[in-house]
Amino acid sequence: MTNSLLPPAGPQRVLALAQLANSVGDGAFYVTSALYFTHVVGLDPARVGLGLTVAWGVGSLAGVPLGRLADRRGARGTAVLLALATGVAVASFLVVRGFWPFVASAVVYATAQSGLAAARQALLAGLVSAGERTGLLAHLQSTLNAGLAVGAGLGGLALHVGTRGAYLVVFAVDAVSFLVCAGVLLRLPSAAAGAAAVGSVKGNGLAVLRDRPYVVLTVLNTVLLLRMPLLSLGLPLWIAERTQAPAWLVSVLFVLNTGAVMLFQVRMARGVSGVASAVGAVRRSGWVMLSACGVFAVSGGVSAWVAVGVLVAGAVLLVVAEMGQSAGAWQLSFDLAPGERVGEYQGFFGTGVTVARTAGPLVLTALLVQWGAPGWVVLGGVTLVASYAMGPVARKAALARTAVLVPAA
């Protein structure tokens, strides 16, 4: 695996360019959307939160059948159509003026985004050999963070200007970014996940829901993903409510995390090339996460500048745990999915992100703000248990896959 921030030329680099295109728009959207919907459109903040929760709930459910559609009809064409649909949904935000039109647009946006993620994973599986997938996903994660950082900068300019026109420009940029993403994806070959089986996926039901080891694996990974809202919610609340550290440290920790993933995710993924190495990576990340939680827990009873140093040390451990867990989970999610149903399985595995982002704020607020230091210990302990539990579940899933493949061979 190369240490370069860019993946090798060919389909891998094209996939990275597509990721970069829409992540720039996403970064600008994430920074400005809340204020746009409340200050410009005039919606109540509580209703905005409700609408987005409903939208992402629908989107997470739709990701599985849309992933299956990619398996049946071809991943490239499905990904292009869903990228276009996402761009149209973002463009519709420019003209919505009421709660229900907002919810309708948000549902289309979240559904298309979830389906696009599954279709792109299926496309990746069809174009890249199994041994190169985790390395490419590491490159894509680095690209994602770089694009989000650029987009967040654009969004910050809009927030600084503060006019309705500035917000509209940001949303227009986001819509165009998905059109560019669709155009870039068209440059890829038409191969799809399980390319030889495109159009031949049989059965009326969703096979992934009957694959109990994979379902359990997804649930355990969702538990590990509860770390996702830490930087955006958990740590800011902890710093403000439980420590003497200055508020600006929140942005420092965010930049540290983003920069580390950009620079080191590819290196951290090196060596993760099968079920055994992926299980080991997840298990090690569980111990690192437990250590990070322990460090964060002691930051509440020290002076301001000591707290700054402790929190930075905890953030370093947190990003190391994040990169290790991500690499292991990527490998397991692909290795344990049938080749002809990669889109369907990836769509289901991706629901863990939505669930973690939805439930994470409630869990983290209860643990960290209400319980304080013991809450950190609980979070670290639960993470460690889940990381160890993934080992036997993954091995059981691998044995089940082998039992199916050997008679077929």
Give a description of the structure.
There is one protein chain. With 409 residues, the protein is mainly α. It folds into 2 domains: 1-198, Growth Hormone, Chain: A; 206-409, MFS general substrate transporter like domains (Growth Hormone, Chain: A), CATH 1.20.1250.20. The chain has helices at 11-40, 45-73, 75-92, 99-127, 133-161, 164-185, 212-224, 234-242, 249-269, 275-297, 304-335, 342-349, 351-370, 373-408. Helix 13 (351-370) runs antiparallel to helix 14 (373-408). It is globular and about 60 Å long. Mean pLDDT is 86; it is low at 192-201 and 405-409.
Features of the shown structure:
single chain, 409 residues, Growth Hormone, Chain: A, globular
CATH architecture of the largest domain: Up-down Bundle
Unreliable parts? 192-201, 405-409
How confident is the prediction overall: mean pLDDT?
86
CATH superfamily of the largest domain: MFS general substrate transporter like domains
Indicate the percent of residues in helices.
over 70%
Q: What structural class do helix, strand and pairing data support?
A: mainly alpha
Largest sheet: none
Tell me the number of helical segments per DSSP (H or I, 4 or more residues long).
14
Order of helices and strands: HHHHHHHHHHHHHH
CATH topology of the largest domain: Growth Hormone, Chain: A
How far apart lie the N and C ends? 31 Å
**What is the CATH C-level name of the largest domain?**
Mainly Alpha
| Tertiary shape | globular
Radius of gyration, in angstroms, nearest whole number? 21 Å
Number of strand elements: 0
In percent, how much strand structure appears in the residues?
under 5%
* Total count of domains: 2
